[in-house]
Amino acid sequence: MRIYRKEDFNERDFWKIFCMGFGPGETMEDVKRKQEKLLEESGVKPLAETDKAIECGDTISIHGKLYFVAVGGKSKCVVRDIDHISKFPETYEGCDHLYCPYCGEMVEDVFELPDNGTHRCEKCGSLFRFEKECIIEYNSYPVEAATIKEI
Predict the structure, then answer these.
(1) How far is the CA of 70 from the CAs of 32, 115, 127, 143, in angstroms?
(2) Cβ neighbour number for residue 102 with a 10 Å cutoff
(3) Which pLDDT tens digit goes with each residue over 67-81?
(4) At 67, is the secondary structure helix, strand, or coil?
(5) Which of 58, 50, 74 is nearest to 125 (CA)?
(6) 43: Cβ–Cβ under 8 A, 6 or more apart, which residues?
(7) Are 128 and 118 in contact (CB under 8 A)?
(8) Percent helix, strand and coil across the chain, each to the nearest 5
(9) Beta-strand pair 116-120/2-5
(10) pLDDT in tens, 45-66
C-alpha cells in the first residue's frame, strides 16, 4: 500500500484524484487508471509504502511521526499530519467549543452531536467522552417607560 500526505497535494488535485466518481460506462479499472495517471501528473511521491493493512480512521507512526488515515483504499491511502497525541490528556470543562483531550483539535459541527456520548477525533483518531451543558441566560433592554397618570 502506498501512503500519501494530504498536505503534499493542492486541494484541487486531491479532490480530483481521490474523490472522483464514475463516468458513463466507466468501470472500477477505468477509474483506477485515471487515478494513477492523475497521481503521476501531480508529481506527489508516496510518503511510504507498506504491506500492512491500513484502514480509514487508523492512527499510524512512520519514522516516529504520527499520522491519521483520512482516506483509505486497497492500494493507497491518504494521511494527515498529527502534531501530537498526549500521554496525559487534558480535561476541558466549561469551554465554548468541544476539544479533543488528546490532541487539542476543536471539533467542528458539534450541533450534530447528541447531548452526551463519545466521539472519535477526526484529526488524531482518539476516542473521548463528552457532555453538552446548556446554560440559559436572559437579557433585557429598555423600550418604553410606563406612563404615569397624575390623580
Answers:
(1) 19, 26, 16, 53
(2) 22
(3) 989 887 788 889 988
(4) strand
(5) 58
(6) none
(7) yes
(8) 20, 25, 60
(9) unpaired
(10) 999 999 998 888 888 999 989 9
d(C-alpha 129, C-alpha 96), whole Å: 16
* Strands of 1-151, DSSP E: 2-5, 48-49, 59-62, 65-71, 76-81, 116-120, 127-131
And the C-alpha cell for 145?
417607560
Question: Structure pTM?
Answer: 0.67
| Tens of pLDDT, residues 126-135 | 999 999 888 8
Q: Hey, where are the domains in the chain?
A: 2-81, 83-141
Q: Which residues contact 106 (CB under 8 A, 6 or more apart)?
A: 97, 98, 99
